[in-house]
């Protein structure tokens, strides 16, 4: 069985320590998507992070594998390595150029959403005025589909996410989002969004972050409860895990350069208290998830789907598209 963590964050620094990745692997994770930048990070920082992460992975090929296909993930698991790809949280690093999408794909980015909490030239953030997908955003969806990158709607405004899912020719995911019905936070997704995601063939991956999961000490049973809600609403084939663990390393300063205002990106009016930062599940919660999912009534087959098989299915379809187009040409 492949255990798939759809989103995790190391410090946005080229010298980030990969010890947390090793902890995830030791807890049973076979694949993780590592964030390499968001809308608040300038291109210089994003590229520096990608270069640093790639160098760390290349320097330890016995532990890590930068992958581009599901077959690569299966092989890495068989070899005892953890498979890694990258994700972008927002379209600002694309510089309003759809052609940038394919470049990021070549650098290891296999997943992207278009707005981080706030509106930009491409899409709406979940903590901003609803406006909808822009004309440039329509072109960006086509570019993401064409590059074989997973189209993600985490952090995206509700109306805009529905328009992205309507525009996409490929399954769309929420790599780290929770049901709004269970916890009324603007970052969580409504039943309408969950149903729309499932209609594309996509997956909603549960975050373990305290603000969104409704527990100050989130654990396996909290994650299982949210996964069970998604499964009950749209079917177990559309529930997954993206714990969104943010690993801080005090010796590294990854603050975006320039006039960075945390209150803009995480507004107090939306329920963020910057004096009391969120808490996360520990990586070791992965060891407890199978039993927790069984406690909410899932079968062994259901558990395997939620922990990885569902995201493998979607990635197999989306990531294989460039190779299929290449062969056709």
TrEMBL record:
At the top level, the lineage of the source is: Bacteria
Q: Which InterPro entries match?
A: Metal_Hydrolase, Pept_M19
**The name this protein goes by in its record:** Peptidase M19
Which species? Duganella aceris
Q: What is the lineage of its organism?
A: Bacteria, Pseudomonadati, Pseudomonadota, Betaproteobacteria, Burkholderiales
